[in-house]
Amino acid sequence: MNELSLIAAIRKWSTPKTAAPGVVKGIGDDCAIIRPRANEDLLFTTDFVIEDVHFTRATQTGIDTGWKALARGLSDIAAMGGDARYALVSLALAPWCCHNYVRDLYQGFNKLAGLHCVQIIGGDVSKTEKLSIDVIVIGSTPRGKALRRDGAKPGDVIYVSGALGRAAAKGYKDRPIPRLELGRKLRGKATSCMDLSDGLAMDLHRLAVESGVAAELDGPLPSAPKATLEHALFGGEDYELLCTLPPGRRAPRELTRVGLIVEGKPGRVTLAGESLQPRGWDPLA
């Protein structure tokens, strides 16, 4: 396997029969060319997936790993209320990576990309000691409509989507489902939003810091089967949405109320009146 043959294979695996809207030129040139639509804001996010940090070969297939690598970026777009549109995928391949494994990675990328009309439009390849994947996802929202972390106000109600602690309870072996449809539903309704990648305790602390508020968790947490409270609060990698809505505003049915935004030291989070430390999933720990 050399660079020329691998790029040719990647181009074959990644190029759809019909280009996504806005793609003037995808894989094959020095840069992809995208023609943006009028009256939209573009969203850019990037995430690593690194062997023995975010996955292990012993427990996850190439398809699983490709899916997860793209899902992380799509979840960021969901948190902003955006439409995911394009992805750039860069691979630093370990010595054990073979053609078939890279093909499996792209099967995982493409399975998830196809569900959300996302086109892979470029990337890079190199080598390293352990497999490293960097995925850049580009999305869009109507101009001025992106959801952000910094809009929560005292009195707002805190909600989460889905069941918490799912990934930790499964040993981080599941395929996350980005909440893109729900994120779009929250445009113009939520006062703040972010995705739950590092655990509720850590991510709610981050949202509260950005909004200059404190937060109280006062209700039962929606937990996944076999998930402990520790998993739900600190496990991370659930890729659900955490958001706030003004009091009295009807929440989409996918959301569960878990608390309130209050005045107080920015970033302080309490559960049943006790302070929660901002800890959770930490790739540097």
Automatic annotation (TrEMBL):
<keyword id="KW-0067">ATP-binding</keyword>
<feature type="binding site">
    <location>
        <position position="106"/>
    </location>
    <ligand>
        <name>ATP</name>
    </ligand>
</feature>
<keyword id="KW-0418">Kinase</keyword>
<feature type="binding site">
    <location>
        <position position="46"/>
    </location>
    <ligand>
        <name>Mg(2+) 1</name>
    </ligand>
</feature>
<feature type="binding site">
    <location>
        <position position="30"/>
    </location>
    <ligand>
        <name>Mg(2+) 3</name>
    </ligand>
</feature>
<dbReference type="InterPro" id="IPR006283">
    <property type="entry name" value="ThiL-like"/>
</dbReference>
<feature type="binding site">
    <location>
        <position position="76"/>
    </location>
    <ligand>
        <name>Mg(2+) 3</name>
    </ligand>
</feature>
<feature type="binding site">
    <location>
        <position position="45"/>
    </location>
    <ligand>
        <name>Mg(2+) 4</name>
    </ligand>
</feature>
<protein>
    <recommendedName>
        <fullName>Thiamine-monophosphate kinase</fullName>
        <ecNumber>2.7.4.16</ecNumber>
    </recommendedName>
</protein>
<feature type="binding site">
    <location>
        <position position="76"/>
    </location>
    <ligand>
        <name>Mg(2+) 2</name>
    </ligand>
</feature>
<feature type="binding site">
    <location>
        <position position="198"/>
    </location>
    <ligand>
        <name>Mg(2+) 5</name>
    </ligand>
</feature>
<feature type="binding site">
    <location>
        <position position="149"/>
    </location>
    <ligand>
        <name>ATP</name>
    </ligand>
</feature>
<feature type="binding site">
    <location>
        <begin position="123"/>
        <end position="124"/>
    </location>
    <ligand>
        <name>ATP</name>
    </ligand>
</feature>
<feature type="binding site">
    <location>
        <position position="197"/>
    </location>
    <ligand>
        <name>ATP</name>
    </ligand>
</feature>
<dbReference type="InterPro" id="IPR036921">
    <property type="entry name" value="PurM-like_N_sf"/>
</dbReference>
<dbReference type="GO" id="GO:0005524">
    <property type="term" value="F:ATP binding"/>
</dbReference>
<keyword id="KW-0784">Thiamine biosynthesis</keyword>
<dbReference type="InterPro" id="IPR036676">
    <property type="entry name" value="PurM-like_C_sf"/>
</dbReference>
<dbReference type="GO" id="GO:0009229">
    <property type="term" value="P:thiamine diphosphate biosynthetic process"/>
</dbReference>
<dbReference type="GO" id="GO:0000287">
    <property type="term" value="F:magnesium ion binding"/>
</dbReference>
<feature type="binding site">
    <location>
        <position position="30"/>
    </location>
    <ligand>
        <name>Mg(2+) 4</name>
    </ligand>
</feature>
<keyword id="KW-0547">Nucleotide-binding</keyword>
<feature type="binding site">
    <location>
        <position position="237"/>
    </location>
    <ligand>
        <name>substrate</name>
    </ligand>
</feature>
<comment type="similarity">
    <text>Belongs to the thiamine-monophosphate kinase family.</text>
</comment>
<dbReference type="GO" id="GO:0009030">
    <property type="term" value="F:thiamine-phosphate kinase activity"/>
</dbReference>
<feature type="binding site">
    <location>
        <position position="124"/>
    </location>
    <ligand>
        <name>Mg(2+) 1</name>
    </ligand>
</feature>
<comment type="pathway">
    <text>Cofactor biosynthesis; thiamine diphosphate biosynthesis; thiamine diphosphate from thiamine phosphate: step 1/1.</text>
</comment>
<dbReference type="InterPro" id="IPR016188">
    <property type="entry name" value="PurM-like_N"/>
</dbReference>
<keyword id="KW-0808">Transferase</keyword>
<feature type="domain" description="PurM-like N-terminal">
    <location>
        <begin position="28"/>
        <end position="139"/>
    </location>
</feature>
<feature type="binding site">
    <location>
        <position position="281"/>
    </location>
    <ligand>
        <name>substrate</name>
    </ligand>
</feature>
<comment type="function">
    <text>Catalyzes the ATP-dependent phosphorylation of thiamine-monophosphate (TMP) to form thiamine-pyrophosphate (TPP), the active form of vitamin B1.</text>
</comment>
<keyword id="KW-0479">Metal-binding</keyword>
<dbReference type="GO" id="GO:0009228">
    <property type="term" value="P:thiamine biosynthetic process"/>
</dbReference>
<feature type="binding site">
    <location>
        <position position="47"/>
    </location>
    <ligand>
        <name>Mg(2+) 2</name>
    </ligand>
</feature>
<dbReference type="Pfam" id="PF00586">
    <property type="entry name" value="AIRS"/>
</dbReference>
<feature type="binding site">
    <location>
        <position position="76"/>
    </location>
    <ligand>
        <name>Mg(2+) 4</name>
    </ligand>
</feature>
<feature type="binding site">
    <location>
        <position position="47"/>
    </location>
    <ligand>
        <name>Mg(2+) 1</name>
    </ligand>
</feature>
<feature type="binding site">
    <location>
        <position position="54"/>
    </location>
    <ligand>
        <name>substrate</name>
    </ligand>
</feature>
<keyword id="KW-0460">Magnesium</keyword>
<feature type="binding site">
    <location>
        <position position="195"/>
    </location>
    <ligand>
        <name>Mg(2+) 3</name>
    </ligand>
</feature>
